[in-house]
What we know:
Layout: H1 16-37, H2 43-54, H3 56-65, H4 72-83, H5 95-113, H6 117-138
Amino acid sequence: MFGFVDSNVNPDELSALVLAYVGDAVYELAVREYLVGRGPAKVNKLHREAVRRVRASTQAMIFHALEGRLSKTEEAVARRGRNAKSGHGPRGDSIIEYRHSTGFECLVGYLYLSRDWVRLEEILALARQVIESELESSEPKQ
């Protein structure tokens, strides 16, 4: 079952880009699960909402919100991801946002592969909080 199989993978031995690769998938699934859990919606609307939450600019905003809230190990992992050179550039976002989003994904992948479910959920809850407050502030006033 997903996440419950013992793995021989040591996240400390993986490259930052491999951690970000896993983190990207984990974060995307967490976002989709959250959106579906809010109640029935059309798939097109779910997709638009998911894209708003997983794009690099939003993940970069989450990365900045994590400052001062991470352990030394988590800071080092996020920094490794931020500084990793991926070999391709971002589509539609700045290189700085792309790098920061890679740092966030790297952290998520590290926590997932470390099987640190409690801390992973804390980080995902903070991400939801940051996103909701940003979406709320960007909504037009009536």
